[in-house]
Amino acid sequence: MRDFIKKYYYLFHKPEFPVNIKMKLGYVFHTEEIFDQKIFQELIRFCKEYISITGKKCISVTMTPPNQRVEMGMKIFGCSNGEYVNRMQELAHYAHIGFHGHFWHDPQKFEDASYDIKKHNTQYQFEILYRQFESQINWFKENNIPTNATYSGGWWFINRDIIELLLKHGIQYDYSMSMSPNLWNPYSIDLVQRNNIRFGESFYTRIEQKKLLHIQNLHCGAEGMVFPEDATRFLNRLIDPEFINLSGVLNSHDYCLDFDNTIKWIRYLILKKQVQFLDHQELIATNISNAKVIELL
Ligand SMILES: [Zn+2]
């Protein structure tokens, strides 16, 4: 629908969430370009505004300097590692920090988008992925920035290899899994369908004694979203009327943050009686004891 038609359409048709559902929502930022002072400041401005509306911190999963794309950005914008650390520390005042990994089939070819390992990729060389994962996540320890045991994957790329690596590094909470058609991948959708996981249902995967709690990514795309009603219609198509206690995160990226439309969406959602905003700790607390456990063989 064109915007001017939508404007009138939504005057008379106000999409609402099903009356009986309860949605506990967090907000996650895939944070990729804080080497750019302008993007960094805009993200901080958003986090502060988000806190003032919801009373909660959003979640900022962040790429790290060993990633070739970040390394190049830091050179271009003259951002040293020390400055990057300072920005992460400042961000941590206003957001819950975590790790955001992006990987390439050949990291030297990171400028060529066809080398990105994206959510649907099942064919890649594990050794090459492994080296990138290790150097990116180890940066946290080397610079005394906590990962807070929190992860969300670049391109929502998640599979058994990644889960194993996350568990190896003590990550306990993941925001990469999704049942949204824009965000799922062959691994995640197969996993949730085989185990009867519903939209907005958190679950653990377990390998031997270690467990990873997955809180679903419900929707990405506030940038350029003029009408928050669009997202309500989108979510209503995915909500299972039999599963009424949903929780999960909404998702944006720092580099394409549309401040006004995203804040408009938050203000719209907070007025819904079905919606409650939670921070990371509260999302964990609400799911930790009752989430289903899926054994990964
Ligand atoms: Zn990303």
SSE order, as H and E? Answer: HEHEHHEHEHEHEEEHEHEHE
Which bin fits the share of residues in helices?
25-40%
Overall number of domains: 1
Largest sheet geometry: 6 strands, parallel
Output the number of helix runs. Answer: 10
CATH-defined architecture: Alpha-Beta Barrel
Q: Find the CATH superfamily.
A: Glycoside hydrolase/deacetylase
The fraction of residues in strands falls at 15-25%
Kindly report how far apart the N and C termini lie: 46 Å
Listed once per kind, the bound small molecules are: zinc ion
* SS-based class: alpha/beta
Average pLDDT score: 95
Uncertain stretches: none
Shape: globular
Query: How many beta-strand segments?
Result: 11
CATH class: Alpha Beta
Explain what the structure shows.
The protein is an alpha/beta fold and 297 residues long. The protein has a single domain (3-295), classed as TIM Barrel (Alpha-Beta Barrel). The chain has helices at residues 3-12, 37-54, 68-77, 81-94, 126-142, 160-168, 186-194, 228-238, 259-270, 280-287; strands spanning 22-31, 58-62, 95-99, 150-151, 173-174, 203-207, 210-214, 217-220, 245-253, 275-277, 292-295. The strands form 2 sheets. Strands 1, 2, 3, 8, 9 and 10 form a 6-stranded parallel sheet that branches. The longest helix has 18 residues, at 37-54. The radius of gyration is 19 Å and the shape is globular. Bound molecules: zinc ion. Residues 30, 32, 100, 102, 154 line the site of zinc ion (ZN).
